[in-house]
Amino acid sequence: MAVRYAVTLHKGGVGKTTTSVNLSGVLAERGHRVLIIDCDSQGDLSSVFLDAHEQLPHTVADIFADTGMLTEDLIRPTAFPNIFVIPADRRLEQFEQTHNFKQEDLTRCLTDAIAEVEHRFDYVILDTATRPHLTGYAALVACDVAVIPLEAARFSFRSVQSIRSYVELENDARSLNPAMAIRYFLSKSKKNKVHDACREALTDILGPQALLRTEIPDSSAINTALHLRKPLVVHSKKSKPSEAYRTLINELQEVTRGQANHANPAAA
After folding, report:
1. Are strands 181-189 and 211-217 parallel, antiparallel or unpaired?
2. N or C: which end of the chain has fewer CB within 10 A?
3. 110, 126 in Cβ contact below 8 A?
């Protein structure tokens, strides 16, 4: 069974797509087969890995529209070994409703779609949009771990209520996905007094277990790699941020191992 990460937060500019791209790069580097599902109608992740994704006849929108397409037929190879994508396009906009989405029958559609193909993959990464709506909620319902990047900057203090509201949304998703874990990490990190105060405040809000130790340093190499449409570990294999993403994967794997041991104590 594939491990499933949903990279998510209902705030723009924190690096969700960047995180999805770079986590997939680290996992592929280690020989794991990775399926990335773009759950954002803007298709930013799709544009990193695919040319002219808006012109493709079938995308993740077919899953939400229940067109009868097999998940297998939606998967596209990329230029990078072990990385595959189910792209998004503007047709997904019709499912980005912001009200009453928790009651929709479609909340489990990504769970069912992944179940069709997860025997082919070691990991599934779901990249979500910036607003709370059906497609992102379905990603939470489908995941093992919700992975949430937070920028270590002053705005994090102003976003405390937003973060708390998001935790509430994730807790709602647990009614359909009770085993889901929630983990946060600091992105675009700069070591200074503001950063230290921010981390301390977030630890108090989220709890020491929820906030991962790994921090992704602020680096132009990350943006350059994304501009070149490459995972960072392909563009700059030995850079400090590449090492940070590898460490982040190690921490996330610790979480999923803990989930497996909890579900099967005899295997621990």
Report:
1. parallel
2. C
3. yes
pTM value? 0.91
User: How much is the mean pLDDT over the chain?
Assistant: 87
pLDDT for the residue 217? 92
**pLDDT at position 118:** 96
Residue type, 78: T
The strand ranges marked E within 33-133 are 34-39, 76-77, 83-86, 123-128
Answer yes or no: are the C-beta atoms of 253 and 144 closer than 8 Å: no
Adjacent-strand bridge partners of 146: 6, 182
Residue type, position 135, single letter: T
Helix (H, G, I), strand (E, B) or coil at 69: coil
- DSSP 8-state secondary structure symbol assigned to residue 218: P
C-alpha of 220 from chain center: 21
Nearest Cα residue to 36 out of 127, 140, 147, 119: 127
Instruction: Tell me the backbone φ, ψ of residue 95, rounded to 5 degrees.
Output: -105, 5
Query: What Cα–Cα distance (Å) separates residue 41 from each residue in 20, 64, 184, 211?
Result: 16, 12, 24, 29
* CA distance linking residue 241 with residue 214, whole number of Å: 11
Can you tell me which residue has the tokens 């277990």?
Answer: 209
Q: What are phi and psi of 126, to 5 degrees?
A: -110, 120
Question: In Å, what is the CA distance from 16 to each residue of 91, 135, 150, 225, 258?
Answer: 21, 15, 9, 15, 24
- 129 vs 110: CA distance, rounded Å: 15
Go through the domains of the chain in sequence order and give each one's CATH number: 3-243 (3.40.50.300)
CB 36 within 8 A of CB 84: yes
